[in-house]
């Protein structure tokens, strides 16, 4: 009946769609995660089903999303469409995606954003729209229905306008990222509608827009990160009519450009933001010498900032940088200071004494040397310091380093790793309360009583230690990774040890005596350390299997043939391209299959060598030099022949091209890219029947005229005349 026919047609259509999907995107078959990225797709494949929860269509060539494309994937949680060429989206394309949580449309060709697209995405939490072509967000908010949105990324190099109402409907965001490097117009109050933003990143180049945005974010953003800005000398207040309490606690400048004047001014203006506790500058450039307006900075009052981080800041003439005289009153409330990878070589003693509240100091990856360290950590400097990081500097003397650090009476955490000390003295001065010491990667050859006995944590990894026998009664954690230890440290000298790392040493085993009855709570050993013999055996088996597989693959894909051909080609390359005319001995070198020898030797040779005048042919059976390597025979014969004549047939192909050796000639012949080849077809043969590794010969058969042996006797005379003419040319 008719309904059976309908059911059949529906079933057939569904089956056809499933087959089409499997062909376009094989990973979608019977899987919740459908990965169709980088498949060269021009459209969203049909046959998508409700079982799919993650659909990855990134890095394709999709230009349009149509209404029916995603109608069936009603359980989709993540839709990745980034890096396509999407310029058009039907208004109801996402209508069925009510469970969608992540939508990535970044790096496409969208010239505008429509609120209708997102109207039914009630569960959407993450929306990525950056890297398209739109210049603004429209007259209203495209995001008004996205009540659960947590992170939003938008903007592009053409994005230039933000209007009031563009963010209506969004109340809370964990992260907001705006690429506004060419943002020129910002309507005051546009971002005020968002009540809370944990972390906002904005790429800006316009300083005026920066001030306006900061004013709108004072009560909503916790961490503001500004990138690529060239900070001008700002005159207007960043607070203006806003009243405390403010929310913003951290301000980061990344890839920014400062001058001495702009630094002076921004320090003054940021003091008005009373909630600001942390300032950070990462990968920035300072054009100046530290000539800051310290009078204006001092008169503007005390800063509320407690943490300052300066990481990889480039000061072109850093050696001329001033000592920041006059900034003393601005630093006495700082608690944490990081200046890393910024070519710091000293801090003046006078300035160091005013860091009276500083608890944490990080000078990682700078240019500190021992004689400058004596100035940097002078008497009464850094009086409250508890943690100091001097790793990856240019300190050479451990004794002198310890002596300077001993002036820090409250210090309990010290990292001096990755300094090339080389030697370690027997006695050193240290702060009396030192609890943590990192001496890893310092090239010390042994440990001595220079190590303070007060330590609770000691790291001497990546040195050249052969033994460890120190008496450290309070030690709880010991790190000995990457040394040359053959035995464990004794248990008696470190009775309170809780954790010890001894990976990558030369330990072969542990004895009960080494622990002296102490109970080991937990041991974390690698598989290699626990089962070395087993692992070595498995590795040997694995290597054998790999070799076996390589041999099999090499045999299947003719790897030996390629190696032999390459060797022959290299040998041929060392010889002259073509022998001088006086050395030409033959009119043609003949390459043929043994199965075709009857035709070659009894018909062709007789016809050509008995012609008037006769042709001189080189045959491997007759003319090769006995005892000479076949490769040399072939190359010499080709070089001494005016032409090379290939007698092609099915036998020629099926016999591995004359057992490979004869066809080493291909390298020499086709490398010269000349007309020395004459092709004779004994029988019709398709170029696709020729093995793919002979790509040049396949190409020559498609582009070069060849002679075909006729079956009719009346045509054979014409064939011989044409062949003789080709040999004479």
From TrEMBL:
Organism: Calyptomena viridis (Lesser green broadbill)
Lineage start: Eukaryota, Metazoa, Chordata, Craniata, Vertebrata
Name of this chain's protein: TLR21 protein
Membrane topology listed for this record: Single-pass type I membrane protein
MF GO annotations: transmembrane signaling receptor activity; triacyl lipopeptide binding
Subcellular location: Membrane
PANTHER family in UniProt: TOLL-LIKE RECEPTOR (PTHR24365), TOLL-LIKE RECEPTOR 2 (PTHR24365:SF17)
GO cellular component term of the entry, any: plasma membrane
Keywords linked to the UniProt accession: Disulfide bond, Glycoprotein, Immunity, Inflammatory response, Innate immunity, Leucine-rich repeat, Membrane, NAD, Receptor, Repeat, Signal, Transmembrane, Transmembrane helix
Gene giving rise to this polypeptide: Tlr21
Membrane-traversing stretches: 534-555
Top-level taxon: Eukaryota
Disulfide bridge partners, by residue number: 28-34, 349-378, 428-450
Subunit field text: Binds MYD88 (via TIR domain).
Domain TIR residues, every copy: 584-727
């Amino acid at each position: 009946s008719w309904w059976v026919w309908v059911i059949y047609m529906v079933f057939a259509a569904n089956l056809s769609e499933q087959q089409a999907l499997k062909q376009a995107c094989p990973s979608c078959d019977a899987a919740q995660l459908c990965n169709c990225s980088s498949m060269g797709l021009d459209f969203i494949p049909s046959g998508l089903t409700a079982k799919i929860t993650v659909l990855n269509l990134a890095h394709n060539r999709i230009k349009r999303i149509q209404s029916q494309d995603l109608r069936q994937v009603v359980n989709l949680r993540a839709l990745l469409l980034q890096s396509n060429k999407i310029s058009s989206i039907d208004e109801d394309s996402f209508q069925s995606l009510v469970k969608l949580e992540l939508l990535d449309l970044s790096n496409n060709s969208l010239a505008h954003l429509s609120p209708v697209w997102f109207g039914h995405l009630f569960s959407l939490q993450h929306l990525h729209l950056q890297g398209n072509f739109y210049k603004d967000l429209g007259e209203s908010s495209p995001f008004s229905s996205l009540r659960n949105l947590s992170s939003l990324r938008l903007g592009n190099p053409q994005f230039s306008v933000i209007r009031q109402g563009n963010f209506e409907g969004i109340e809370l965001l964990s992260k907001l990222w705006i690429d506004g490097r060419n943002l020129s117009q910002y309507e005051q109050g546009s971002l005020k509608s968002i009540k809370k933003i944990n972390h906002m990143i904005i790429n800006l180049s316009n300083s005026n827009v920066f001030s306006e945005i900061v004013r709108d974010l004072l009560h909503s953003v916790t961490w503001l990160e500004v990138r690529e800005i060239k900070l001008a000398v700002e005159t207007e207040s960043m607070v203006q009519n806003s009243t405390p309490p403010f929310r913003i606690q951290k301000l980061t400048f990344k890839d920014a450009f400062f001058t001495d004047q702009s630094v002076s001014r921004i320090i003054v203006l940021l003091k008005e933001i009373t909630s600001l506790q942390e300032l950070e500058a990462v990968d920035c450039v300072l054009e100046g010498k530290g000539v800051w307006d310290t009078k204006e900075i001092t008169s503007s009052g005390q800063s509320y900032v407690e943490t300052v981080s300066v990481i990889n800041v480039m000061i072109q003439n850093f050696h001329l940088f001033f000592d920041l005289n006059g900034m003393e009153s601005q630093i006495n409330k700082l608690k944490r200071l990081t200046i890393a990878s910024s070519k710091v070589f000293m801090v003046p003693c006078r300035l160091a004494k005013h860091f009276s509240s500083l608890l944490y100091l990080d000078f990682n990856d700078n240019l500190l040397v021992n004689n400058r360290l004596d100035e940097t950590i002078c008497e009464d400097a850094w009086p409250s310091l508890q943690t100091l990081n001097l790793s990856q500097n240019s300190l050479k003397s451990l004794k002198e380093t310890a002596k300077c650090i001993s002036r820090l009476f409250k210090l309990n955490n010290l990292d001096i790793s990755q300094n090339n000390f080389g030697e370690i003295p027997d006695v050193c001065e240290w702060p009396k309360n030192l609890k943590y010491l990192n001496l890893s990667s310092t090239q010390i050859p042994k440990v001595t009583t220079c190590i303070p006995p007060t330590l609770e944590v000691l790291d001497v990894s990546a040195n050249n230690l052969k033994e460890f026998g120190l008496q450290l009664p309070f030690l709880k954690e010991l790190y000995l990774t990457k040394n040359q230890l053959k035995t464990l440290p004794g248990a008696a000298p470190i009775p309170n040890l809780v954790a010890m790392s001894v990976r990558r040493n030369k330990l072969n085993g542990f004895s009960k005596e080494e622990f002296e009855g102490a109970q080991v709570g937990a041991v974390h050993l690698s598989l290699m350390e626990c089962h070395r013999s087993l692992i070595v055996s498995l590795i040997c088996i694995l290597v054998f299997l790999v070799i076996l597989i390589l041999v099999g693959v090499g045999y299947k894909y003719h790897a030996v043939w390629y190696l032999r051909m390459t060797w022959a080609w290299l040998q041929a390359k060392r010889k002259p391209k073509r022998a001088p005319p006086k050395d030409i001995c033959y009119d043609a070198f003949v390459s043929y299959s043994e199965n075709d020898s009857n035709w070659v030797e009894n018909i062709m040779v007789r016809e050509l060598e008995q012609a008037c005048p006769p042709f001189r042919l080189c045959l491997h059976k007759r003319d090769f030099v006995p005892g000479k390597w076949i490769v040399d025979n072939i190359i010499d014969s080709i070089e001494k022949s005016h032409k090379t004549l290939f007698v092609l047939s099915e036998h020629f192909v099926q016999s591995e091209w004359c057992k490979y050796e004869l066809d080493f000639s291909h390298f020499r012949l086709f490398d010269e890219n000349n007309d020395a080849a004459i092709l004779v077809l004994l029988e019709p043969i398709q170029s696709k029947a020729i093995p793919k590794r002979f790509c040049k010969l396949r190409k020559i058969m498609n582009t070069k005229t060849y002679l075909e042996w006729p079956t009719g006797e009346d045509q054979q005379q014409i064939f011989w005349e044409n062949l003789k003419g080709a040999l004479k040319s």
